[in-house]
Amino acid sequence: MSGTLYIVGTPIGNLEDLTYRAHRILQEVHIIAAEDTRHTQKLCIHYGIGTTLTSYHDFNKEEKTPVLLEKMQEGQSIALVSDAGTPLISDPGYYLLTRAIVEGITVVPIPGPSAILTALTASGLPTDAFRYEGFLPKKSGARSRVLQALAEEHRTIILFETPHRIKATLGEIQNFFGTRQLVIARELTKTYEEMIRGSAEEILSNYKTQNPKGEMTLVIGGKPKTKRQPKRKMGANYHLSESISDDKTHVVPE
Ligand code: SAM
Question: Which of 113, 131, 166 is a domain's end point?
Answer without folding.
Answer: 113
